[in-house]
UniProtKB/TrEMBL annotation:
Annotated keywords: Disulfide bond, Protease inhibitor, Secreted, Signal, Thiol protease inhibitor
SUPFAM superfamilies: Cystatin/monellin
Signal peptide positions on this chain: 1-21
Organism annotation: Pan paniscus
Gene3D superfamilies membership: 3.10.450.10
GO terms under cellular component: extracellular region
Lineage, highest ranks first: Eukaryota, Metazoa, Chordata, Craniata, Vertebrata
Protein name as annotated: Cystatin domain-containing protein
Annotated GO MF terms: cysteine-type endopeptidase inhibitor activity
Chain ranges of the Cystatin domain: 24-100
Length: 115
């Protein structure tokens, strides 16, 4: 059995908390949402003390707060045999095992740079 990690992420991307609006389901294939997922996975790996990298496997929930760029996502990730700073982690095989861990990454912020 592969070692998979469900990751619940509340991600703030290019926005501020303007109101207490509700989260609504969005298409998980939207370009902006895909960028937010990529950022969340990168940040998750950077913040872990684990030497092995986790890679994105699947989106279970994709939501956005109305009138903002605040995303709520529930991601499934797997622990790979690659180290976290290796190249091409997306093609790295998953570790085998039966353990599962739950992680939360809340309020990670991504700000667009002015060039």
């Amino acid at each position: 059995m592969q070692w998979k990690v469900p990751l619940l992420v509340g991600l703030i991307v290019l926005g501020t908390q303007v109101c207490s609006c509700k989260f609504v389901d969005i298409d998980k294939n939207l370009k902006d949402f895909a960028s937010a997922v990529e950022y969340a996975v990168f940040q998750f790996n950077e913040d872990q003390e684990d030497e092995f990298a986790y890679k994105f496997l699947q989106v279970h929930r994709s939501q956005r707060k109305r009138l903002t760029w605040i995303y709520l996502m529930d991601l499934e990730m797997g622990r790979t045999v690659c180290k976290k700073h290796d190249e091409d982690i997306d093609n790295c095989p998953l570790q085998e095992g039966t353990e599962e861990k739950m992680f939360s990454l809340l309020n990670s912020t991504c700000v667009e740079r002015s060039w």
